[in-house]
Amino acid sequence: MTRGIDSATQTELDKSAFNIINLLEFQGIGGSNTYITDAPVNLDYSGNTYDSVRGMLGVSDIQEEENIKIENVDITLSGVDIENVKLFLDYDYIDRRVLIHRVVMNSSYAFVGSPILVFDGRLDQPRLVEDFEARTATLSVSASSHWSDFQSINGRHTNPTEHKVLYSGDTFFDKATETQKDVKWGKE
Q1: C-beta neighbour count of 107 within 10 angstroms
Q2: In this predicted structure, what is the pLDDT of residue 97?
Q3: With b meaning 16 or more CB within 10 Å and e meaning fewer, what string describes 155-182?
Q4: Mean per-residue pLDDT, 162-185
């Protein structure tokens, strides 16, 4: 798929050696956005500071096709302190939006050209592997492209918990599971 790449980025990509880094934005986790990068230093972009995880971030290959298809990407954070894993898992991050930008970086850790949005999707499928002796963990999460929303089933479940999310204090579904045993249909 063709994509608009500015001339500065294209010139750098034409060289025999260049550095590409990932900028990840997790939206709405714990009430705020989280910004991380695999660059060796913290970086500022679009008014936000992307915290460096210094090589402990892995992003799987992102396949891009011309037809509409649900793409997936795996994001892995390794060597994460167990206390920080707890903070991440305590929040409801399933179906939260994640944006992945890629940008060429020079030897002074400055951007060459503009970052390019390469993935826009929703988080799902968490995985956690803990190393109790080292007190670290590897946290992985998959994300599906924004096209995954088209496969969801419209409507909502008819249960008290989900109804109260929309209408707090309403008891409409509280007795929905109670049934009358002698239900007669038609004329007697």
Answers
A1: 6
A2: 87
A3: eeeeeeeebeeeeeeeeebeeeeeeeee
A4: 71
CA dist 75 and 144 (Å) reads 11
Counts of helices then strands in the chain (DSSP H, E): 3, 9
Percent of the chain with pLDDT over 70: 71
Query: Which tokens go with 4?
Result: 């608009």
What lies within 8 Å, CB to CB, of 54 at 6+ separation is: 40
Q: Which of 6, 3, 25, 1 is nearest to 111 (CA)?
A: 6
Q: What is residue 48's predicted lDDT score, i.e. its pLDDT?
A: 94
Give me the phi and psi of 137, to 5 degrees please.
-150, 160
CA atoms within 13 A of residue 158's CA, in its CB half-sphere: 5
Q: Is the pTM here over 0.70, yes or no?
A: no
Residue length of the chain:
188
Q: In whole angstroms, how far apart are CA 77 and each of 31, 55, 103?
A: 21, 9, 20
DSSP states of 81-138: EHHHHHHHHHS--TT-EEEEEEEEE-TTS-EEEEEEEEEEEEEEEEEEEEETTTTEEE
List C-alpha distances in Å: 126 to 43, 47, 85, 129: 27, 29, 11, 10
